[in-house]
Design brief:
Blueprint: E1 6-12, H1 18-33, E2 37-44, E3 47-49, H2 54-59, E4 62-67, H3 73-78, E5 83-88, H4 89-92, H5 96-101, H6 103-106, E6 108-109, H7 128-158, H8 173-201, H9 206-216, H10 219-222, H11 229-247, H12 257-298, H13 301-317, H14 322-333, H15 341-349, H16 352-363, H17 370-374, H18 376-383, H19 392-397, H20 399-419, E7 423-424, E8 439-440, H21 442-484
Parallel strand pairs: 1-2, 1-4, 4-5
Antiparallel strand pairs: 2-3, 5-6, 7-8
């Protein structure tokens, strides 16, 4: 394409952390190199940034959508009538050149209600996983804020401040801070269930799901030893969401129809699922959670280490992909039950692939391209704050050695985390977690991280070196054959 184009784009990913901004930067750099004008709106963890104006969309020749969690109805309406090139954000980095080459041939006219998708997304809009990620995204601020407050309270006590609850008179400041923090853990479950239901069928489902999920985790009301936990939030959030979706299709006539969403749906949904939860769903889910907690608390050490290897390997395998998120979700879901050692595996292993790749480029620069060397500093810094995605370009360049190195070192490091009794209270700031009280004990954390990084770097250098030599020999053999012919 010779003439410069006016382009607009949106990037988003399920977590809203690394992929969202990495792809936005890549699109901007490539567009500038081709002489095009582009503006990219990012829909990440910080909310919508660099929002596209209606006038900019109207003037654009093409719209690029690199998305991992779909678009809402408002966004689809914004691009109605535009030529849209849509692809999964997981494919954007490795196909950045093809995106611009294929704009004329692969773009499709976008209708507001078309929901057109080109290819399979990691988290497809309208899928069950997209609804679950909506719930997780809503719950994260609760557990992050609450976890940091609990950590601060523990630090204050360690510094010598008194810890006294209300039963002994006026409560101490450390107790107040800790109690506020634990409210975050308490409400993250009903918030998650409410946003899962809201993602499926909008506002009418929100209040019933919140109240019912709160009920399912109130041991006093249910008379159970444990609440339904994250599992209950998932089941009830999905059930209420789909129930309300079909309920909204009921036609009641002009007089009663306005009352459907504001009164009838919340009342009937809350009544039906409230009763079901009290008598059936709540106790049943609570018994399942009791069984899971009992298993985790009584699992033999050898089995626990084996499970830790599996979790660590899954976290490192696809660097923010579906396997990584499955392991992350399992570990994260245990925080509400005050089980912190499994989430500590996330806090260590998620740091390693990007940091190890970046450090390895400085130790063995001959194994990496100039582009990989230029990205090394960013990979180390971003990776240190628990965003695994910066390791993806390194893995794409040499999949077999890089993924093997990451997976093996991640599994072994997961075992070390459990063996040393490391715990993590909540999501935080990666390598700085011990300094703000979210990760403990401090010295074992840094020792295990250093050991894991050393192993990961060593495996990268050894395996990638062997892989490059093997590739060079194969290329030389092909050239010899071609020369003989």
């Amino acid at each position: 394409m010779e003439a410069p184009l006016k382009l607009v784009a949106i990037t988003n990913c399920p977590a809203g952390i690394a992929h969202t901004y990495m792809v936005a930067e890549a699109l901007e750099q490539k567009a500038r190199s081709l002489g095009h004008v582009i503006k990219v709106e990012t829909q990440g963890a910080n909310g919508v940034e660099n929002r596209l104006l209606d006038s900019e969309i109207a003037a654009a020749d093409y719209v690029i959508l690199a998305i991992g969690r779909g678009l809402n109805e408002e966004d689809r309406a914004r691009f109605a009538g535009k030529k849209v090139y849509e692809l999964p954000i997981s494919q954007a980095l490795k196909n950045i050149n093809q995106i611009f080459e294929q704009l004329p041939t692969h773009s499709k006219l976008f209708a507001a209600d078309s929901g057109v998708r080109l290819g399979n997304q990691e988290v497809r809009q309208g899928s069950v996983m997209s609804h679950l990620m909506a719930g997780v995204s809503a719950a994260l601020p609760f557990v992050i804020g609450g976890g940091i407050l609990v950590a601060i309270a523990n630090m204050l006590v360690q510094f010598g401040l008194p810890y006294q609850d209300m039963s002994k008179g006026a409560p101490s400041f450390s107790w107040i801070i800790e109690s506020i923090g634990y409210l975050g853990f308490k409400f993250m479950i009903p918030i998650m269930g409410a946003y899962i239901a809201w993602s499926i069928s909008d506002k009418p489902a929100f209040a019933p799901a919140f109240i019912v999920c709160y009920l399912a985790n109130d041991k006093g009301l249910l008379g159970t030893q444990s609440g339904a936990g994250f599992l209950g939030a998932v089941v009830l959030g999905l059930a209420i969401g789909y129930f309300v979706r079909y309920f909204r299709k009921v036609k009641l006539g002009k007089a009663l129809q306005p009352l459907l969403g504001s009164m009838l749906i919340p009342f009937i949904t809350l009544f039906v699922f409230g009763v079901l939860t009290y008598y059936v769903v709540g106790p049943f889910m609570a018994s399942i959670m009791d069984g899971l907690l009992h298993f985790l608390n009584t699992i033999p050490p050898s089995m626990k280490l084996g499970a830790a290897f599996l979790v660590g390997a899954m976290l490192a395998f696809d660097m923010g992909g579906p396997i990584n998120k499955t392991a992350w979700f399992f570990c994260f879901s245990l925080l509400e039950k005050h089980i912190y050692d499994w989430y500590a595996i996330v806090g260590v292993v998620a740091l390693m692939p990007p940091m190890a790749a970046g450090i390895a480029t400085f130790i063995a620069p001959k194994l990496f391209t100039q582009q990989e060397k230029d990205a090394a500093g960013s990979a180390i810094v971003v990776g240190a704050t628990v965003a695994t995605e910066p390791a993806i370009p390194y893995a794409l360049a040499a999949p077999l050695p890089m993924i093997t190195a990451n997976t093996l070192s991640g599994g072994i490091t997961g075992m070390l985390v459990i063996a040393f009794g490391i715990q993590r209270l909540a999501p935080g700031l990666g390598v700085f977690d011990p300094l703000i009280g979210l990760m403990s004990p401090v010295i074992p954390f840094y020792a295990v991280l250093a050991a894991g990084l050393a192993l990961n770097i060593t495996l990268i250098i050894v395996l990638k070196g062997a892989w490059l030599k093997h590739s060079a020999r194969k290329l030389a053999a092909k050239q010899d054959v071609a020369h003989e012919i």
